[in-house]
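#onboarding

Welcome to the new folks! Below is a worked example of what a typical request in this channel looks like: someone posts a single protein sequence, and someone else replies with the predicted structure as tokens. Don't worry about understanding the tokens yet, we'll cover that in week two.

Example request:
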Amino acid sequence: GAVRDRVPGGRPNVGRGVKVEVGERQTAIDLDLVVEYGVPIADLAREVRENVVSAVERVTGLEVVEVNVTINDVHLPEDDQAPDSDTRVE
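Example response:
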């Protein structure tokens, strides 16, 4: 996903990681997430689930029958540090 977002002329896929099944009155949602290292996963999943149910029911009027949260990866602090090729030790 990170590489795809950097391709010139490409556009970010805002639906990536979200799957929704919609019926006449109900909906089910699957979410794939990446969490920051150190965040309590069970607490995060519970809060995401509660917020999604509240927002979707308020905006659409549909009953949310399930929200499945899958944690695909853990983002580590060192993932943000790019190697500096210009730094030389003499």
